[in-house]
Amino acid sequence: MNLIFLNNGYFFKYVTLENKKFSFYANGFDDDIKFEIESFTDKEVVLKMFYKVFTLENEKVLSSGFYEKDTIIEESIITLKLNAKTDIDYTILSYDFDKGFYNRPHKMTFSYLEEKNINLKKASDEFGNEYVGGVLNGLKNGFGEFTYQTKTKYIGEFKDNIRSGLGTLVSAHEMYIGEFKGDAKSGMGTVYYTDGSKYYGKFISNKTAGLGIFKYKDGTYEIAKYFNDCLVGDENKDKRLYCRFKEEDKIDDTSIIIKEGVTTLNDTLAIKINSFDDVNLNFSLLYMEIDEDNKEKVVEKEYSVKKKDWFKTNYSYIYDSKNREGYVILSYMDESLKTDIDNYRYFLSNGGIFDGEMDGKYPKKGHLYLSDNEYYDGEFYNEKLNGYGEYHMPDGDYIKGEFLDDVPEGIVEYVYPTGLVEKRKYFSFAYPRSSSGVDMYKELED
Prior knowledge:
446 residues; 65% strand; mainly beta; 36 strands; 1 helix; globular; eleven-stranded antiparallel β-sheet
């Protein structure tokens, strides 16, 4: 049996001649490309290709919005010879945040192949994952298809077993087509959701970051700014409050429009906005807990947070008829996030909050908030304290010097609130809030 092979860099597939009509995804902003098989013999196949082209001036789109009526369908006839490669130039409907919608030139490779000439390596591992694709020195390299035991599938480029380059990640809930770096979604990409909506924009370490455009299932569009998968308000939108809350081992993120009244954050927590201006936000947290009479009661506590600041507090929630303790972190968005996409707040895996300069997908230099009166100002690498910095502890003491992978490196200064300075060399070090590790050092001199 002969097969048609298609590859546009982000996606590749084989099509049998039994399929008279088929489609193919492109990393543009609109629908997939349609194909029809006009005719075929043992020596060649004739295809008809249908794709969308944008028709209006970019300036009109930015002021009036973009809709389906602004495109036309282009057709191309493609003739494929047996066992020969054919490259076709076409355009992808794309978006530029300075210019608006435009037709981006792209290329697709076709081949009409005899099945016996398809030479792909097939392998599976002890976890039930399966791989079909290129292999070099025993590692996944080049194009391949990796199907996880969870039925999630990655189709695209690999480099030494790592997803790197262009590719497509398909799960039960969504499909991402775009760039990968360090085995994560990083760079420009498009997400297609099961409800028919889609998102196009920049990703850093699997999360939206920077400007993006969201197309709703009714065909309308919204251009906005995101970080850590949450929408950030700008001068044309309502002010927003970023929220992160943790219950048990589950951490959730969301953002809400700031307006007076009560908004539910999750099943056990709500926030009531009392008043706000360009500097301060006054609000109350509402949650349930069981009192000393074993009755459920609503607790309301008032707080205030300034713009650019982070607020963190614990709260109670009821689980299995007992009071459990969770925490919530809130941020009143900083207007500077509108323009500087490389300097934005970032949540570290250890629960800390970083605000500062990014290097790719990781913090580079800035402020790390750990808890009240506990923070670090300095340099980072790979989500850890690396370089010169000051680590301030809740009791007012702080360490000043070089750090290597979260541990003070070499001779550092230990400064007391009284001003007394000790020079120390650490053998081991743990954050005071940590329940693991030890604080070992050798005092060198007063």
